[in-house]
């Protein structure tokens, strides 16, 4: 249970420090690529872990969908970033790595709770990021990617919230 409490604290810090509010400065193309790539890497890695470690069939099924959808989105981001002349990071941010480490530390039913809670946080962040990108990025390819991907991320967010209770 300690792991779940620590995870809740990390999630609260993570969510508070990354959401893009109305008064936030506009996001640059490079910031969008960096943050979207890190989030995508987190989604794939945490979901691969969940596919192996989750105890509930629902969490495993959700993990499989996250792997498929986010691997596809990660490839699309790489293509759009390359056309925009931007480099895509191959490592997740320190915040995403810390979140992944917290999920890894949970076991059994606590793992399922930790994974789904992390999914809610990560998708809340992604919705804010992609929403901001649809308004703020300059490159038409990156903007198109954000606009195309945002509805899928919102769907993931709703599913994660519904199943994290």
Word description of this protein:
- With 165 residues, the chain is an all-alpha fold.
- Helix content is 81%, strand content 0%.
- It has 6 helices and no strands.
- Helix 1 (2-18) packs parallel to helix 5, helix 2 (29-53) packs antiparallel against helix 5 (109-136) and helix 4 (94-105) runs antiparallel to helix 5.
- The longest helix is centred in the C-terminal third of the chain and has 28 residues, at 109-136.
- It is elongated and about 45 Å long.
- Residues 1-24 have low confidence and may be disordered.
Key terms:
165 residues, mainly alpha, 6 helices, 0% strand, disordered N terminus
Q: Strand-residue fraction? A: under 5%
Helix content: over 70%
The radius of gyration computed from the alpha-carbon positions, rounded to a whole number of angstroms, is 15 Å
**Major β-sheet, in short?**
none
Count of alpha/pi helices: 6
Low-confidence stretches: 1-24
Mean pLDDT over the full residue set: 87
Count of beta strands: 0
N- to C-terminal distance? 16 Å
Inertia-based shape: elongated
Sum this structure up briefly.
The chain has 165 residues and is an all-alpha fold. The chain contains six helices and no strands.
Q: What's the structural blueprint in terms of helices and strands?
A:
Elements: H1 2-18, H2 29-53, H3 57-83, H4 94-105, H5 109-136, H6 140-163
Helix pairs in contact: 1-4, 1-5, 2-3, 2-4, 2-5, 3-6, 4-5, 5-6
């Amino acid at each position: 249970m300690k792991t779940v409490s620590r995870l809740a604290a990390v999630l609260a810090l993570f969510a508070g420090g990354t959401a893009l509010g109305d008064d936030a400065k506009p996001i640059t193309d490079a910031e969008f690529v960096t943050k979207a790539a890190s989030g995508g890497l987190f989604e794939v890695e945490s979901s691969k872990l969940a596919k192996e470690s989750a105890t509930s069939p629902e969490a495993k099924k959700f993990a499989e969908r996250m792997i498929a959808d986010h691997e596809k989105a990660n490839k699309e981001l790489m293509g759009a970033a390359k056309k925009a002349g931007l480099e895509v990071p191959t490592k997740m941010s320190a915040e995403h790595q810390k979140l992944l480490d917290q999920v890894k530390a949970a076991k059994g039913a606590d793992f399922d709770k930790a994974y789904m809670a992390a999914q809610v946080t990560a998708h809340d962040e992604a919705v804010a990021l992609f929403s901001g990108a649809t308004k703020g990025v300059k490159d038409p390819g990156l903007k198109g990617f954000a606009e195309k991907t945002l509805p899928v991320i919102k769907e993931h967010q709703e599913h994660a919230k519904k199943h994290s209770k």
